[in-house]
Fold this protein.
Amino acid sequence: MKINVIGHRKIFLIIALALIVLSLVSIAVFRFRLGVDFAGGTVWDVSVPSATPLGVKNALEQAGAKNPVVAYDQITKSYSITLPQISEDERSSYLDALKGKFGSGVVSEDFWSLSPSVSASLESRAIVAVILVLAGISLFVAYAFRRVSRPVSSWKYGFITLLTLLHDVVIPAGVYAALGHFFGLTADSNFIIAILVIMGFSVHDTIVVFDRTRENLGKAKGKIDLPEIVNESVNETMHRSINTSLSLALVLLALYFWGPGSLKFFALTLLIGIVAGTYSSIFVASPLLVLSNKETGKK
């Protein structure tokens, strides 16, 4: 059964545009809650038997800790505590307070701290990395299709790839900003890694569709009906794209529900991005390819 993707391109593009607008509004309104990686502070992993996150938080506040954020990891059976930057003496004081309340079974497992200056440097480098990857992928696609000039120029393939990547990045970023506002989720290095992985996966699917389009354009003789050729190419590769994405989605769902707590939202970000990337590869990139051509139907 064939889907007339090109014939209904306005509907698919409107859906994509609406999702982008909603995501941008979410980012603008809620902003990102920056994690220790980008805002500075301390992350401290502690094993506290017979305790609750609220009990650990109260014990730290009573010991003088400012705004501690406590999360429990069911896999490691330990607590991850996020604090403003603290010294080794302060850590020892808080550890004594926890032992005084929960017993000698309290064990400090990991402790690391970043200054605001180092975090600011990491933040700027992360932003530059995302921009460079976006530009690099787009230029690579334009170069890879450099011999394709009939009827779509190679630079248009690269530019459309850039647009679809922005779609695939903005949507999970908007969801992440909303989760940060309502559930206290912080954007850290895992978030940046997830965005980079999403871009790599998304461009792979898009190139598959574009490459099949290139093959079918090469086989076409005489009058080129670009919408028909693109629609045929999308349908030929759709099952492969959906099956690949579905396989990865199942792994990410398992990681979200049964994986370590530190990777829970990393998996969720990837899952949202993979879904957005699959949609853009099928229902956004191909319609844009047709809209970008002003010589449809000409020899």
